[in-house]
Amino acid sequence: MERLAFSIILLAICLLPSLTFGAEGKCIKGDCVNGAGIIKYPNGSKYEGEWKNSKKDGFGTFYYTSGSIYMGYWKKNKKNGLGEFNYYKGGSYIGAWKNNKRHGVGKIVLHDGGIYLGEWEDDKIVGGQGHFSYPDGSIYTGKISNYRRTDGKSKFIYSHNK
């Protein structure tokens, strides 16, 4: 009986590193299975946040090797819920996510200073009401379709800045 218990303990000790040092990355702090922890991936990216069943689940921040950063909610390793993505070349998206895609109400700030506020579906701007603010100060509020202004009830305010 003691020999069986010793074998089970030895097997558990041998398998324990695979829980924290898998091909996915290395848990460098905390509980990266069910709790809060930090994992560093072989490519240099890093995730700090909540885990459930060894998956990003809950609130957390992902640091991409490119310099981009996502801070927000996750569900089963995918961006889900509210979050902010800051692009490495400038600009950001703040809003709703579903299955790693922009989905719902969101605001994107482009690296040139342009801003779009409106509805997203499956990572695309959907037809409907939206608001564009252009770098020159011009503003468009109205119907948007396929990333463009459309005819219909809308308002465009031209900037006097040159």
For the termini, the CA-CA separation is 86 Å
Mean pLDDT: 81
How would you sum up the global shape?
A: elongated
Strand content: over 45%
Query: Which CATH C-level class of one domain is it?
Result: Mainly Beta
Q: What is the SS-derived class?
A: mainly beta
Instruction: Give unreliable regions as ranges.
Output: 1-23
CATH topology of one domain, anyone?
Histone H3 K4-specific methyltransferase SET7/9 N-terminal domain
Return the CATH architecture of one domain: Single Sheet
Question: Mind telling me the C-alpha Rg?
Answer: 22 Å
User: What is the helix tally?
Assistant: 1
Biggest sheet features? 13 strands, antiparallel
Number of DSSP strand runs: 13
Task: Work out the helicity level.
Answer: 10-25%
Pattern of helices and strands: HEEEEEEEEEEEEE
How would you describe the overall organization of this protein?
The chain is mainly beta and 162 residues long. The protein has a domain at 2-111: Histone H3 K4-specific methyltransferase SET7/9 N-terminal domain (Single Sheet). It is 12% helix and 54% strand. It has one helix at residues 2-20, and strands at 26-30, 35-40, 46-52, 55-63, 69-75, 78-86, 92-98, 101-109, 115-121, 124-133, 139-145, 148-149, 155-157. Strands 1, 2, 3, 4, 5, 6, 7, 8, 9, 10, 11, 12 and 13 form a 13-stranded antiparallel beta sheet that branches. The longest helix has 19 residues, at 2-20. The protein is elongated and about 55 Å long. The protein starts with a helix and ends in a 5-residue tail after the last strand. The model is unreliable at 1-23 (pLDDT under 50).
